[in-house]
Design a protein that fits this description.
This protein is α/β, with parallel strands linked by helices and 472 residues long. 35% of the residues lie in helices and 20% in strands.
Length: 472
């Protein structure tokens, strides 16, 4: 049996899976936590990898390894390869002002023109999570550290480099999936826009990782013979782990909501609603993110004083549309649509709808309608969506599973819980090892399919109420 390893160096933890390269069968796995915070010393990721690999029984018998990881962060290295400062993670919002500045600057002071210019150049419009905004923050807030920065890379790039036998700065490698989240690499052209990096760094131009091909062997592991794959960002790795194909959209309902579609065409949305990312296979991964997802269900359960199982039962006992009761779930503001100061709201409350069942139904329908808006935003960019793969903690709710197909207007497939990012990295490692033209075909047991007629009236009622809320 030939073994491969996949690594997920995520925000919260490092997960390592070891799988059979031919079948994808899980052989063993390990996990180790990362420190909390939005600014982290990268060496903590290396320590967590060592611990997770040991918990997985070691990697001496592994023939290939790839790393998937949190997107967008900023890791700065000096000319000797030392880390200049703690890495800023994707969820560090201190660069929000820098994002607004970069948009205006590329538009010669005009925000609308700037959004269009960024979308045309790299397929995304800067927000605080993207690397370009973080290096602008560095240039303004810590110019001495910006001067010391000889190279900028991403979290997965850095960990792959740490594992590599070649530790020169010229050996830094990334992939198109993760590079597309920097805002200075274009998924459409497949090239860096180093002029935009220079704009962000106020005239400085540090080195950036080489962008490897999807199944390219980029070297070997330090102290062993295992082949290293290029790795990728977490969303692209999850799509690879799920064997998503063109026409699929992945809806992840975790702390945040993510809608990402596999497409054969690049996307360029000047509103910034849809990010024009690349995937890990040579296709594209247009993506939207919402702030409000599984915690909407947490809030509803807390209000009603029930657990999640009871919340699901209550929701399924109420009629479709909850008698006109609508919950707009902007409990933490919202990113899509961009309403950072919005709050959640309940509309249509009457004596008849003032029951736990109706409120539970409205909460789940509101959550799903917000994600359905994300699917339609992707469709509006010309992307074909035939079916939905539903993952994340809230995907285990029976009410979510049963209501989603009608609200999304498409069949919904729910895979069993798993480490999809690490699995995608392992599948990439097997692909690199095989030298084949496409990733290996691994079985996906336990995939459940849910279907129901379109809940058109639910979507229409939600859109009516949301239209009032969007003016907040």
């Amino acid at each position: 049996m030939t073994l491969v390893a996949g690594v997920d160096t995520s925000t919260q933890a490092c997960k390592v899976v070891v799988r059979d390269a031919a079948t994808g069968q899980l052989v063993r796995a390990g996990r180790a936590s990362h420190p909390a915070g939005t600014s982290v010393a990268p060496h903590a990721w290396a320590d967590a990898f060592t611990a997770a690999a040991a918990a997985a029984g070691g990697l001496d018998d592994v023939a290939a390894l790839s790393v998937g990881g949190q997107q967008h962060g900023m890791v700065c290295l000096d000319e000797d390869g030392a880390v200049v400062r703690d890495a800023l993670l994707w969820n560090d919002v201190r660069s929000a002002g820098a994002a607004a500045d970069l948009i205006r600057e590329l538009g010669d002071g005009n925000e609308a023109a700037g959004r269009q210019a960024w979308a045309d150049a790299v397929g995304v419009v800067p927000v605080a999570s993207f690397t370009a905004t973080k290096v602008r923050w560095l240039a303004d807030a810590e110019p001495a550290n910006a001067d010391r920065t000889a190279a900028v890379c991403l979290p997965h790039d850095w960990l792959t480099w740490q594992l590599s036998a070649d530790r020169s700065l010229s050996a830094l490698v990334t992939d198109r999936g993760d590079a597309s989240g920097t805002a200075y690499w274009s998924a459409r052209t497949g090239e860096y826009r180093l002029d935009l990096l220079e704009l962000a760094m106020r005239g400085r131009r540090p080195a950036v990782p080489r962008v490897a091909g999807p199944a390219e062997a980029i070297g070997s592991m330090r102290g062993g013979s295992a082949v290293l794959g290029p790795g990728t960002g977490d969303n692209a790795a999850a799509a690879l782990g799920l064997a998503a194909r063109p026409g699929d959209v992945i809806v992840s309902i975790g702390t945040s909501g993510v809608v990402s579609a596999i497409s054969t065409m690049a996307v360029s949305d000047p509103t910034g609603t849809v990010a024009g990312f690349a995937d890990a296979t040579g296709n594209y991964l247009p993506l939207i993110a919402t702030l409000n997802a599984a915690r909407v269900l947490d809030a509803a359960a807390a209000i009603l004083g029930v657990d999640h199982h009871r919340l699901s039962d209550l929701a399924l006992s109420a009629p479709s549309g909850a008698g006109g009761l609508v919950l707009v779930p902007y409990l933490e503001g919202e990113r899509t649509p961009n309403l950072p100061r919005a709050t959640g709201s309940v509309h249509g409350l009457t004596l008849r709808t003032s029951t736990p069942a109706y409120l539970a139904r409205a909460a789940i329908e509101g959550l799903l309608c917000g994600l359905a808006d994300g699917i339609e935003a992707v469709v509006a960019q010309g992307v074909t969506v035939d079916r939905v793969l539903l993952i994340g903690g809230a995907a285990r709710s029976p009410a979510v599973q049963q209501l989603a197909p009608g609200i999304f207007g498409r069949p919904v497939l729910v895979p069993p819980p798993g480490e999809y990012v690490a699995d995608g990295a392992a599948r990439q490692a097997a692909w690199v090892l095989s030298g084949a033209g496409s990733p290996p075909d691994w079985d996906q047991p336990g995939l459940e399919t849910f279907e129901s007629p379109p809940a058109t009236s639910v979507r229409e009622r939600y859109a009516e109420v949301r239209g009032r809320t969007d003016g907040q």
